[in-house]
Design brief:
Blueprint (H helix, E strand, L loop, with lengths): L1 H14 L6 E12 L6 E7 L11 E3 H16 L4 H4 L3 E5 L3 E2 L3 E2 L2 E2 L17 E17 L6 E22 L13 E2 L2 E20 L3 E2 L2 E4 L11 E14 L19 E4 L2 E5 L2 E3 L3 E8 L3 H9 L7 E4 L2 E5 L7 E4 L1 E7 L3 E3 L2 E5 L18 E4 L2 E6 L15 E4 L2 E5 L5 E4 L2 E6 L11 E4 L2 E5 L9 E4 L2 E4 L20
Parallel strand pairs: 2-4, 4-8, 5-8, 8-9, 9-11, 10-12, 11-13, 11-14, 13-16, 14-17, 14-18, 15-19, 16-20, 18-22, 19-23, 20-24, 21-25, 22-26, 23-27, 24-28, 25-29, 26-30, 27-31, 28-32, 29-33, 30-34
Antiparallel strand pairs: 1-2, 1-3, 6-7
Helix pairs in contact: 1-2
């Protein structure tokens, strides 16, 4: 009963003091044990009108969520539920129009995420081919997303359409740790499968931003339990940015001038094994230089933190035993701005030492292979990291990866087609190194300072000469360059 009480308290806190606007149409759900397989199944649908005979009906999201959370906590909150049921599924039986975001404006920003906490089972979320649309959530002092966190779960056959998600940091006592992050689908994921998932037409604002998750991490080196698995995932027409109100009310903002920030078209920070079975498309993704501009405007200080931005993930720290990281047939078109920028990953860092959070280390050899990918990448001016007096931070830009630190095996870049353009400094004087490459900005063995076994074959790179218009030199343009 202790776990049930704790979970109920968390969910109640999310809803206390919030006045929810009416939904466009009422919601209805039913939960129970399926007779054919013993799974605890919850079916959710949006009714055509209040005249439906199905009862009870919920005309506000907060009312629906509180009753729904109480029901699943009552039935699945005790470990004994594992002897009663064979799993947990949530099925959307209709499209869900939350009505909060319409015509480019948040009509209703009040929202609370679905939360599954310490239940006996984590859910399989089956969208059943349906769409959740017009979702608006502006959170204060907590990370913002539709689902709070997911672990050991599957999300499949669902589309998120026209979402507006913002995480504002207001007080030093926020629940985000330091500054608050925003994502469309989930905050943190562990061992989660995304199958046939689409995020289209989203605006996401926070310190760190993404679509499927801010952080994906693994707590095991077992290749069968990757941090995240992707199959037929499409991200399209998404903006990852930051507005002034994200930090304007936060009194300690000026002291976060060197705090790391990541943004990614799929995941902001990816740690552990990453599995991709089928197609992955990230189309018309935009991550402008909002963070350095907003930070300077709010605090009157330069933002000099490490800023990682990538079409898939801003920062990728793989870890698995004897794993081959194969990425095949990825399509990305994006305009991304940061210190580490890559069409796929801003920075890839293979770390063989155990981490503080999880006792993970890579043993044996591991290859990193990208093939048959199509990337169109533009990197507009980025003003952060300019300390001046010869202390500007290094910058890394690559059509596939900005900086690749790898020394446990070969790096294979095969049959990729890349079109890149960039303007790193604009008219501002820049005093440190910028590593730019059509495929990879910089490849290194990291701490080992070893020579990396890199093979690039049948890759096609097209570049705007403006990429190098202010560089002092250029070398090995097809693979990597330094200026």
């Amino acid at each position: 009963m202790g776990k049930i009480a704790k979970l109920f308290l968390i969910c109640t806190l999310l809803l206390v003091g919030v006045s929810f606007a009416d939904l466009t149409r009422p919601l209805y759900f039913s939960c129970g044990k399926r007779t054919d397989d013993g799974v605890y199944a919850c079916n959710i649908r949006q009714l055509e009108s209040t005249k439906s005979t199905l009862q009870p009906q919920y005309t506000k999201w907060g009312e629906f969520l509180q009753v729904f959370q109480n029901r699943i906590e009552m039935d699945l909150g005790d470990p004994s539920a594992k002897t009663e049921y064979n799993g947990f599924e949530i099925i959307f039986e209709s499209d869900i129009d939350l009505g909060g975001y319409q015509n480019g404006t948040c009509r209703d920003a009040t929202f609370a995420p679905m939360y599954f906490g310490a239940l006996a089972f984590q859910p399989t979320i089956d969208g059943n081919g349906k769409t959740i649309k017009n979702f608006c959530y502006i959170a204060e002092d907590e990370n913002a997303s539709f689902f709070s966190s997911l672990s050991n779960s599957t999300v499949k056959d669902i589309t998120f359409l026209n979402a507006y998600v913002k995480a504002k940091t207001v007080s030093a006592g926020n629940r985000c740790g330091t500054l608050c992050d925003a994502s469309v689908v989930a905050d943190t994921v562990q061992n989660v499968n995304f199958e046939n998932v689409v995020v289209r037409g989203a605006e996401v604002y926070g310190w760190q931003t993404s679509t499927l998750a801010i952080t994906a991490k693994a707590t095991s080196t077992d290749l069968n339990t990757p941090a995240v698995s992707l199959s037929h995932v499409t991200i399209q027409d998404v903006t990852l940015s930051m507005t002034r109100d994200v930090i304007a009310e936060y009194s300690d903002a000026e002291y976060r001038y060197d705090l790391q920030s990541s943004s990614g078209g799929v995941v902001a920070n990816l740690g552990g094994h990453f599995k991709m079975d089928d197609s992955l498309k990230v189309l018309n993704l935009s991550a402008p230089d909002s963070i350095s501009k907003v930070f300077k405007d709010v605090t009157n200080k330069e933002y000099v933190g490490k800023r990682y931005v990538g079409g898939i993930a801003g920062h990728f720290s793989p870890s698995a035993n004897d794993a081959d990281f194969d990425l095949d047939s990825i399509e990305v078109s994006a305009a991304l701005s940061g210190l580490w920028v890559g069409g796929l990953f801003g920075r890839v860092y293979i770390d063989t030492s155990a981490t503080k959070d999880d006792d993970i280390m890579i043993k044996g050899s591991s290859s990193f292979k990208v093939k048959d990918s199509k990337v169109t990448l533009n990197s507009p001016v980025y003003l952060g990291g300019n300390i001046g007096k010869g202390k500007d931070m290094n910058r890394y830009f690559g059509g596939l990866v900005g900086e690749l630190i790898w020394w446990k095996g070969p790096v294979l870049l095969l049959n990729n087609t890349v079109d890149v353009s960039a303007d790193w400094h604009g008219d501002k004087e820049y005093t440190n190194a910028a590593y730019m490459g059509g495929l990879v900005g910089l490849v290194t063995g990291g701490k080992e300072l070893s020579v990396v076994d890199v093979s690039a074959e049948n890759d096609t790179v097209t570049a705007d000469e403006d990429v190098f218009k202010k560089c002092l030199c250029r070398r090995n343009f097809g693979k990597s360059g330094s200026c």
